[in-house]
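By way of example, what follows is a protein record of this kind.
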Amino acid sequence: MVGSANLNIMIKAARRAGRALIKDFREVENLQVSVKGAGDFVTKADIGAEKILKDDLMGARPTYGWLAEEGGEEEGQDPTRRWIVDPLDGTTNFLHGLPHWAVSIALEHKGQIIAGVVYDPAKDEMFFAEKGAGSWMNETRIRVSGRHRMIESIFATGLPFAGRADLPDTLQDLARLLPVCAGVRRWGAASLDLAYVAAGRYDGFWERRLKPWDLAAGVIIAKEAGGLVEPMKSGGDVVSDGEIVCSNDAIFSGFAKIVRG
């Protein structure tokens, strides 16, 4: 696929940040003897990756705005466009030496996500999409799954940790969903969960209390792969509210009804 100039900038930036993170990831195992040491190291890796992304993206498009997990929000000279970036989605996996984490970059124009890249450096899988141009993984066009039955479908979510207030809601979701599906996975990186829905690896995904940088790139990749994406609450906004339900068209109605309670 030949993408736009902006998409090519995003892909190159993601690869460069990914190369730096892979080098850091190889060091993590040696630091596990000290939780503080490993945590400090991963924080530095995260900040370092964001610097690479900011240098590349803002260097190429200096008038755009910026929203990122570490660096916060900056308004650009062009108020209609901004980058939304998570340099390391799946930090806890990274910290524990689990090879499931990603670099996530989205481009927003007039409040709409128009391009997204989710790069998994450990597996060298680059998921990307532009509005109206479909979704891709490396050189392959991807589509959501064609499953029609909930009992044959696998879903992904995030499980609240450390006493988060949404734990009761999630436990209720699981109590309703687990008896009627083929399984639920919790792999710890929302951007990859959405990319996996786009690729047909998962049949659906839902989660609450996410941040814009967790969702933005994955949302357009899922949509362009034929997925339905809606907020958990009617009238809400997925990216700004941080609540999402996503699946293929065939099972969406039944799935959404279950997780919305």
